[in-house]
Amino acid sequence: MKQPAGPGQWRNWAGTATARPARWAQPRSEAEISAAIKDAAAAGLQVRALGSGHSFTPAAATAGLALDLSLWTGVTAADTRTGLVTVRSGTTLRALNASLAELGLAMANLGDIDVQTIAGALATGTHGTGARLGGLATQIEALDLVLADGSLVSCSASTRPDLFAAARIGLGALGVVTAVTLRCVPSFTLAADERPMPVEQVIEQFDALAADNDHVEFYWFPYGRQALVKRNNRVAPAAGRVAPPMPGWRRIWEFEVMENAAFGTLCRVGRAAPRFIPALNKLSSAALSARSYTDASYRVFVTPRRVHFVESEYAVPRESLPGVLAELRREVPRLTEPVMFPVEVRVAAADDIWLSTAHGRDTAYIAIHQYTGLPYRAYFDLFESVVAGVAGRPHWGKLHSLDARRLAPLYPRFDDFRRVRADADPENRFGNAYLSRVFGPAG
Ligand SMILES: Cc1cc2nc3c(=O)[nH]c(=O)nc-3n(C[C@H](O)[C@H](O)[C@H](O)COP(=O)(O)OP(=O)(O)OC[C@H]3O[C@@H](n4cnc5c(N)ncnc54)[C@H](O)[C@@H]3O)c2cc1C
Fold it and tell me: For the purposes of burial, counting CB atoms within 10 Å of the CB of 408, is it exposed (0-12), middle (13-18) or buried (19 or more)?
């Protein structure tokens, strides 16, 4: 789980956050998690749980106690009739997906990758795409946490409902999550259809695309004309002819060679000679090609991401998507520092989780990226100024510059969250610099 960056040092996947924890612990039980927290409190240290380090923000960074939960994994209970599955918090999504498949179950929706831990992914509001579906946290039925005083508590919609409402997407601010009970669905197959379309046409037809497909997303290279539209639809068990699964050799060719090795080479060329980026970008755009295949849901949702990048993502009200994209497409080519990576658009249904980026509104997610090592500040600032006009909410795990003053008006239950946090952690045991920025002073 820890990303080695030197002796005793922690660094995230993107290299945008580092920390030197005073103390590390690798607990193997709830009792060890509780003891580590009490020991840290006695030494006056703050505590952060580590996931897989895939947040771009310094959400997990601490100079106090770093709790590495990589030995605290596995499914502990499963009811295949109700779909309720309890999993330890350090389990990666990859391991969880494999265990669920063995049980004939699956997560209803997932994001792009599966290396995150379940607790880390939930804590920052990780989501996939689907106009009728919510992010991962909407699939939580109950949570177990160790609080600042070392006590283990359970919460759900009926037991300690306020703690549950806050902790479902809680950035680790309420306590250390030890177990999550998820409401899973029977295993399902997805038919994937990916094809290039002119970007103007995709934007124009996006409402229909989102309504007609279970999961839809598209991305385009900022200087290119083509977008790649990905549609993933559930295949009914009795369905007739569907595209076959992608053979192993083709998975390697498409995902490893073309999307990672070849694209990585283009990115390195662009970083060495940025003036070529618009041309390289058009080349990548022109090379987008169609493919159709079917596979188990979790194998379709997830793809390997080996080319490193930095990312910012904002959730905007669905109806404001065309305006935001029009402004971005107008302004990005005017930046003096060119952009190598594509822009990605996804959707989610409104939910009721206090700190969900989709709280109370049907949402479009716009994610912007830049290849690691290339300048990105002006681009990300421009993006923030555009989404600020439509009450955009930043992904809690992706780069943004908002603080509590600017976040509070975006979330109707922000003050409730702060109240529950102050009750659960009056001494700010689980604080760090990122939480101070986004929530303001604790207590
Ligand atoms: C290549 C890449 C692709 C991505 N794709 C997507 C995507 O498709 N959709 C999306 O929404 N996001 C995506 N993300 C963002 C990512 O899902 C989130 O940032 C997620 O939080 C990372 O999980 P993690 O296990 O690495 O947690 P970390 O980044 O290590 O930690 C995140 C937060 O969770 C807290 N935490 C971890 N474990 C616990 C615990 N047991 N109890 C309490 N708090 C805890 C940490 O303290 C920290 O505050 C992507 C990121 C990358 C780098």
Answer: middle
Q: How far is the CA of 336 from the centre of ligand 1 (A)?
A: 32
In this prediction, residue 7 carries a pLDDT of 67
Return the best residue to mutate from 1, 34, 116, 313 for the ligand 1 pocket (most ligand atoms within 8 A of CB): 116
pLDDT digits (tens, 9 = 90+) for 352-366: 999 999 999 999 999
Judge contact between 169 and 354, C-beta under 8 A: yes
Which residues lie across from 366 on neighbouring strands? 314, 345
Strand-pair category, 140-146 with 152-156: antiparallel
Write down the pTM of the prediction. 0.95
Whole-number average pLDDT of the chain: 93
Residue type, 403: D
Parts of the chain with a pLDDT under 70: 1-7, 238-242, 249-258, 443
Residue 99: CA count within 13 A, CB half-sphere: 19
How confident is the model at residue 208, as a pLDDT?
98
Nearest C-alpha neighbor of 157 from the set 172, 169, 140: 140
Ligand 1, CB cutoff 6 Å, lining residues: 13-14, 48-55, 59-60, 69, 89, 111-113, 116-117, 119-121, 123-124, 126-127, 171-172, 176-177, 305, 395, 397
Q: Return the pLDDT at 251.
A: 66
* CA–CA separation, 147 and 141 (whole Å): 19
